[in-house]
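Subject: Protein record for review, amino acid sequence with backbone structure tokens
Why sent: The fold of this protein is of interest and is recorded here as tokens.
Notation: Tokens come from a learned vocabulary of local backbone shapes, not from coordinates.
Attached in line: The record itself begins immediately under this heading.
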Amino acid sequence: MTEPMTPQTAPPAPLATPDDQRLVAACLAGDPAGWEEFVDRFGGLFMHVAERTAVQRRMPLARADRDDLVAEVLLACVRNDATVLRAFAGRASLPTYLTVIARRVVARSLVRRLESGRLVSPWAAIDVAATPRNELSRAVDREQVESLLQRLDSDEAKLVRLHHLEGRSYGEISRLTGMPLGSIGPVLSRAKAKMRA
């Protein structure tokens, strides 16, 4: 007696688009244009994940903190020979995959901030233009920031001024300075570390 034949089930089709696969391959190959496209395409997504995750955990998140979290997500994507990108198998769309990664990175970082008591950013003073205050308070904040900026080299100070004092986006800063888009976040993070020290 022979077993009845059952139709073989085909493996599920990958959900990653050819464009997703091309972009990941370009990043893994170290193509600067590919990385710039990656940051342009997913920077806003990472920003949204950072803000949403902070709201869900009822943790205050100043703009500078949000930018730090986005930079941490970007660094996680390339850390350890881009393990995160190499692990992308296409079983989900690239935005879905990166959303899961970003949520994990942001959640871990927020827990570290909670444990260290840094829920309210010490950099809130840098967001002077976005915060309604009286002129005297604003002047004091700017004076403190200018004093801290003297600890930085001229390029770092310029980036901090453009991003935090003038409120310019990474794209605008890249156009104004000629710096690659993917380099701006790490330089700002280093500058803030120097200023905190």
In short: Residues 32-56 form the longest helix (25 residues). Helices lie at 18-28, 32-56, 63-86, 94-116, 135-149, 154-165, 170-177, 181-196.
